Amino acid sequence: MRRAVLFDMDGVISDTERFYVEAMIERLKREGVTVRPEQLNDLFGSTMRHNWGVLKERYGLQKDVDTYVEEVHEIKEHMLEVQGLHPMPGAVELIRKLYEAGVPLAVASSSPRDVIEHHMEAFGIQDCFDTIVSGLECREGKPAPEIYLRAAENLGAAPAECVVIEDSANGVKAAKAAGMYCHAYVPPQAYSQDVSTADNRLESFLGLKVEDVLCG
User: Fold this and answer.
1) For a surface tag, which of 30, 90, 194, 197 has the fewest beta carbons within 10 Å of its beta carbon?
2) CA neighbor of 184 nearest in space, from 196, 61, 160, 107
3) DSSP conformation letters of the chain
């Protein structure tokens, strides 16, 4: 019986996935590399350190990974200052419904812990979650299952008792590799991702009930 819910953050709770993608594209442009969002599809959901390791090799970039990660973070933060930090429509309301129903909740995100905590505090939902796991705390990031297995262990839940809500192909792969039920969250503005291995597809959180999430 499914009884716990594990959320990805960027593109699921917070409307920030696009900022990461746009910042990566902008930083690559400064290196003379022009890419479209779909050319970065294989990187969505993974940590920035992993992504820039891949991009360094793919495009023959010269700076070290930490420099690129720091510079992309600066670009993303500037975009957030201009456009503001907002939750995905209906995400906060859904989280509160699950919390009030006594459902154990976790965030399992590839972002750094301080970024995760900042977003949760900004949306006033930090008290709704029982545990946070950052991909930077794991030996292997998504699509490896470690981040979700750690979150489940922290909740005291077996993988088969867990539901994951993910928006990226790598995140869906991680959830399924962990042996968990997975909703692929695909709102109209989402970047195109192959989430066909998910158990269910959600296009909106608006009006969702607790049983819709737990029962699929």
Assistant:
1) 30
2) 196
3) ---EEEE--BTTTBTTHHHHHHHHHHHHHHTT----GGGGGGGTTS-HHHHHHHHHHHHT--S-HHHHHHHHHHHHHHHHHHH---BPTTHHHHHHHHHHTT--EEEEESS-HHHHHHHHHHHT-GGG-SEEEEGGGSSS-TTSSHHHHHHHHHHT--GGGEEEEE-SHHHHHHHHHTT-EEEEE--TTPPP---TTSSEEES--TT--HHHHHH-
For residues 179-194, give the mean pLDDT. Answer: 90
What is the per-residue pLDDT across 58-111, written as a single tens digit (0 to 9) for each? 999 999 999 999 999 999 999 999 999 999 999 999 999 999 999 999 999 999
Predicted confidence band of residue 17 (pLDDT cuts 50, 70, 90): confident
3-state secondary structure string, 66-83? HHHHHHHHHHHHHHHHHH
Please, which residues have CB within 8 angstroms of residue 174's CB and are 6 or more apart in sequence?
45, 142, 143, 144, 145, 147, 148, 166
Please state, as a whole number, how many other Cβ atoms lie within 10 Å of the Cβ of residue 32: 8
Place of tokens 């154990």: 104
* HSE-CB for 45 with a 13 A CA cutoff: 33
Distance (Å, whole) CA 124 – CA 121:
5
